[in-house]
Known about the structure:
This protein is mainly alpha-helical. The chain has helices spanning about 1-25, 35-40, 45-50, 55-80, 85-110, 115-120, 125-135, 145-165, 170-185. It is elongated.
Amino acid sequence: MAGAGRRSGQDTKARIQEVALDLFTERGYEATSMREIAERLGITKAALYYHFKNKEDIVVSLFNRQMTAVDELIDWASGQPRGPGLRREVIERWSALTARQGVRMFRFAMANQHTLRELKPGREGMFQRFQLLFDAVTDPDAPLEEKLRTRLALLTVQMSMMAGRDLDATDEELAEAARGISLELLGLRAGPSS
């Protein structure tokens, strides 16, 4: 029974994160209050404060969630044999992660740049994480062009959110297009996403 209570608490925390992310993106971080987050969720402010002590705590948790997902991908990729199959699977997983969480986080970051510069919520490790992911999928003795293509392919997924933000496309369409372009950069055929 204790597991059910823990699961319910995790579900509530995840719902708070999702609603806060929506409000921070729609209205802006500064213009959103903890009261508004609680009201949108239909919970008391006390229940909200049980999970997060303030808005900054919510933002930090959002970035930590994103970094944890990236770390899990790096850990998985590091244990696999390098080669085209691994590069394809990493692009697939990276694209899915971006479609699931990255697009909304990117929109939030773009709408709240000033706040993020002040808060600096766990973003400082992203460059090192990219480096670890590049290293996991690229043979150190690979030709320069292969190394560069792999890096560009991974960055294409991420940068497509910025490049495509004003295009008439859904988040899913944008992520799928980025996935296809990334696979083409690697010389791999882009079939239906897995």
